[in-house]
Amino acid sequence: MSTNKYALQGRVKSVGTAYLFWFLLGAHYAYLGRWGLQLLFWITLGGLGVWFLLDLFLMSGKVEAYNASIYEQMDKIEKSEKDQDHQRHIESLKALSSKD
Fold first, then answer.
1. Which of 36, 69, 87, 89 is 20–30 Å from 46 (CA)?
2. H/E/C letters for each residue in the chain?
3. pTM surpassing 0.70?
4. Which range is least confidently modeled, 44-58, 62-76, 83-97?
């Protein structure tokens, strides 16, 4: 895999930072990498305030959903690493037992 789990850890987003982007710049969708929604948010002035207010209550869920896909990728990488380690151990044991 081209992405390792440490690079993925760097992509995990914080709810607090998302709220900071929301409050200061109205750029919380950009923070989450959703540029299409971000542009729409800015063009509609946050849905004339309604969308802006809704995001106040929905922000943590949006960040959790974003992070869930990253955690899923990290789990797959860790499982793959464990499987590879297990296979190496089996091969080592086979090599040792064949020497006897």
1. 69
2. CCCCHHHHHCCCCCHHHHHHHHHHCCCHHHHCCCHHHHHHHHHCHHHHCHHHHHHHHHHHHHHHHHHHHHHHHHHHHHHHHHHHHHHHHHHHHHHHHHHC
3. yes
4. 83-97
What are the Cα distances from residue 90, in Å, to 59, 75, 79, 84, 86? 47, 22, 16, 10, 6
Query: Higher confidence at residue 94 or residue 34?
Result: 34
Structure tokens at 31: 């923070």
Residue type, 47: G
Residue 11 is which amino acid? R
